[in-house]
Amino acid sequence: MKDYELDKRQYVIAGVTIAIVTIYIIRLFVLQIMSDDYKKNADSNAFQKKIEFPSRGIVTDRTGKLLVYNQPSYDLMVIMNEESGRLDTLEFCQTLHITKDFFIKRMNEIKDREKNPGYSRYTQQLFMGQLSDREFSVFQEKMFRFPGFYIQKRSIRQYTFPYAAHILGDVAETSAEDIENDKYYQPGDYIGKMGIERKYEKELRGTKGVQILLRDAHGRIQGSYQHGKFDTRPIPGKDLTLSIDIRLQALGERLMEGKLGSIVAIEPETGEVLCMVSSPTYDPRMMIGRQRGKNHIALSRNPYKPLINRSIMGLYPPGSTFKTSQALTYLSEGIITPASMFPCSHGFHFRGLHIGCHGHASPINLVPAIATSCNAYFCFGLYYMLANRKKYPNVQTAMNTWRDYMVSMGFGYPLGIDLPGEKRGLIPNAEYYDKAYKKRWNGLTIVSISIGQGEVNLTPLQIANLGATIANRGYYIVPHVVKNIKGQKLDTVYTKRRYTKAARWAYEKVVEGMRRAVTNGTCKSADRPDYAVCGKTGTAENKGRDHSVFMGFAPMENPKIAIAVYVENGGFGADMAVPIGSLIMEQYIHGKLSEGSKARANAMQKRHIGYGKQNR
Questions:
Q1: 32, 194, 196, 323: which has the fewest Cβ within 10 Å?
Q2: Non-local CB neighbours of 446 within 8 Å, separated by 6+ positions
Q3: CA angle at residue 215 from 212 to 218, to 5 degrees?
């Protein structure tokens, strides 16, 4: 009789044997084919791949003055597989003047794959960055006693001037997110964090080189592998020429000391930013060396927020500078003509609504309305545009037409400047008001937007760009702070003209009004005998003291500079913004200030508005 139990056991034993053999085969396949751990181990015993870092591109201003350059630095690197607990920790810590607790904490941070996702025990990891010359010298003498530790030579950024921190930005150690987003980086590498250092990181950083060194059986370096046959040389980063004039930038930062706000100056013909001041500011040299972290924390905790670039991140009501865009829209849409007149009895009075205005002649037409900054004129213009049923079927269509003009002038969306963090501002449309007022609204409901109040918010950069567009009589080039990249052309976005919806003839009338504002209106203190200035003041309402605003350009024909000045809580536009704007224009056009202007600049520098000196 056949023994079925024995047959079953044979099948079970055979199955178990096949399973064990299969597991061993799979494990061998994974170890030998899929995993490179053994290969890495063998390679690390035979070779050491030494990264050679490229020199980062230098940065100059538009006149060739050196702004940012490189200085030698030394990083202390560790290969965990070589250190392997053979270190005399006490002597190591004494040599570097660090505590044992710091040593343990740092070694644990390096091995933490959450904080250091690129960690490998076979590759160099940053233990301590930016050693001083003295620390480097002392450590190098004893380095043979510390297996697994190496000195990596590289460079750090240095800044010639204490200005333009928000434009220049800074460089710091890569984060886990940086490494995750770009495989070029390894733990301990440096990357641009803000300003042009961030925006032009790929151009500035260059390409790393690799030197392959041969080890002997004891791990000692014997020289280059095959005489450097497989080595690659680092490729330096590309040099940048900025459009800013550092002397103009320095003057702007002086004038804004003790004040909150911004100055933006643009060359209308090219869109090049001549200066960009955000106040308060800080010395860019605070952001280098091992004190960077401490200084960054202090700046981030400062209640006046010096790390914020108000020029592109600050959202403000533009005040009466916005009236120029309204005039362009009303004229181009045929709502008014240059001869159209509206009454102003110390303000806009219509159907029970009152918006105040200062005293001037009445009734008034367009050019003197711009010159005297008449609120009533522009309120009437918007009301009649939104109420015009012969031209627009409903208020929503009229409102969106208005919105389209504003967007074409560079409002409501980021302009696209080559700096990170630019805000879009706010230009409301019909849907915005339908939602806010449940479709029960008309021109009177929102008339304050016609004078740059209400829901409208712009950045100082957008206000300066408005000045450049008017100077060009209808077009602008996207503002940019980089003038030239060595060996590379600028993106065409920074060379292409962008035309607005407004008619050129309308711009001529607005220019006439802005010129009248300087010769016989609200910008009289900007008038000069040697070149024709065109300007428009703004006094933006605020819960506290009003903001002081100025937008203008010069000369009137063939303009060289357009400018916006915004001083928070500075009072009337003529009080602070106009004098500051006038000094900036004089400095750029003549290359210097007259003796009288120097005295005015010194006086303005000392005028503080509830805010102390900046971080210098």
A1: 32
A2: 382, 428, 433, 454, 455
A3: 160
